Amino acid sequence: MAGSIRLRRPPNVWELRIFIGRDDNGKVRHRYSTFVGAKRDAERELARQLLLIDQLAAPVAARGDWKKETTFNEAIEAWKNNGWADLSPKTQLSYNDLWTRYIHNDLGTRPIASTGIYEVEQYLRRLADGGLGDSGIRQVRAILHRACRLAGKWSNGAIPNPVSGAERPKAQGRDPVRAPSVDEVRQILKALSDHGDLRLHAFCRLAIATGMRRGEIAALRLNDIDFATGELRIDESVVIGAGGVTVKAPKTSVSIRRLFIDQGSLDLLTDLRNEAFEIAHRCELDLADDGFLFSFDPGGVTPPYPDVFTKQFTSFRKRYGVAADIHLHSFRHFAATFLDGVVSERQKQARMGWSTTHMSRHYTDAISQEDKRAAKAIGEVLS
Q1: Cα(first)–Cα(last) distance of the chain, in Å?
Q2: Domain 63-154 carries which CATH code?
Q3: pTM of this prediction?
Q4: For the chain, how are helix, strand and coil distributed in percent, rounded to 5?
Q5: Do residues 203 and 309 touch, judged by C-beta distance below 8 A?
């Protein structure tokens, strides 16, 4: 269970928010309450409410079924049966893959109560030495920590949590994601044009020009794009789950936004739309207004897997000698870096869809004009 606080009215009126799961449609649900007092007292009240909700959610039958011989695998399995569904589909898939590959046949077979902090740190270091990246190690530790914490709660404190004090080793040999230079971006776009894959070219160009996340680009529908003005509506994202891809609202409401694109990017999207109509016509299908622009389906009904574009770009990068530390996500770094000298910080946050934005999502005319200037400036650089 996760929660957060924010100041509603200075100096001491706080809003407490607690994640309580998802409804039948996968929409995130929160419980809200108001607290008046100092920030530290508000944090204590949030912790108290989180503990109360956790205790109410714990299955009564399970509280007496735990023993000191309980293994990490058994704790994770219990979590899967009671609370795993609250995670997003993508997180469920990722956690299950990490459990199967790195935990199940290793630390997972050991009893939690007889495993110390030293053994947990040794295990995490083995993963790092074996080549698992920092993000993977962090997620493995998060899985183990949450499973042990729940096991301790459900066993009325009989099972300890050796993961809580275990430090995570620093992963070695991973290339950091960086913002490419303007010259590198121009070379990449030239190579993409020579490469001849219109879909990949348009996908990368949009990521470079707007800083959109790959899931947001994959979720773009034809009616999200005003082909006359170059304005995009971003209100969905594609996530990968155990059952395939799912289209859902972005993780935070501030990611729902409108922005403009430059003429070069708009031309590529127009070419991709025309190609989609041609393919649909050949297959004797109708391309609906809400069809997915980057879909590999002739009718545009099915959204594409974002991973496909990551793999395609990796292959393209190796073929054309692009630096190994440039990834699809590097283009978001490039867009954010470029905007520093073009528009205000306020508009930069709005265009990027950051949750730390200092404004409401209702754009004023002045902000729209500022966003048009951002689109024009980045278009001139890319051209």
Answers
A1: 48
A2: 1.10.150.130
A3: 0.60
A4: 50, 15, 35
A5: yes
pLDDT digits (tens, 9 = 90+) for 106-123: 999 999 999 999 999 999
Which residues are within 8 A (CB) of 98 and not within 5 positions of it... i.e. 6 or more apart?
136, 139, 140, 143
The segments of the chain whose pLDDT lies below 50 read 59-64, 357-366
Q: What is the pLDDT of residue 86?
A: 83
Kindly state the tokens that stand for 97.
Answer: 């893959």
pLDDT of residue 355: 64
Task: Output the six-digit token pair for 203.
Answer: 């996908």
Options 3.40.50.2000, 2.60.40.10, 1.10.443.10, 3.30.565.10; which CATH number does 182-382 get?
1.10.443.10
Q: How is 127-186 classified by DSSP, letter by letter?
A: HHHTT--HHHHHHHHHHHHHHHHHHHHHTTT-S--TTTTPPPPPP-SPPPP-PPPHHHHH
The gap from C-alpha 19 to its chain's centroid, in whole angstroms, comes to: 17
Region(s) of the chain under CATH 1.10.150.130: 63-154
What confidence score (pLDDT) does residue 363 get?
Answer: 33
CA distances from 115 to 50, 71, 163, 331 (A): 27, 10, 9, 43
Query: Which of 186, 191, 103, 181 is closest to 140 using CA atoms?
Result: 103
Residue extent(s) of CATH 1.10.443.10 domains in the chain: 182-382
Task: State yes or no: cis peptide before 250, omega within 30 of 0.
Answer: no
User: Which two tokens mark 88?
Assistant: 């997003």
Are 343 and 373 a contacting pair, CB within 8 Å? yes
Cβ pair 155, 298 in contact under 8 A: no
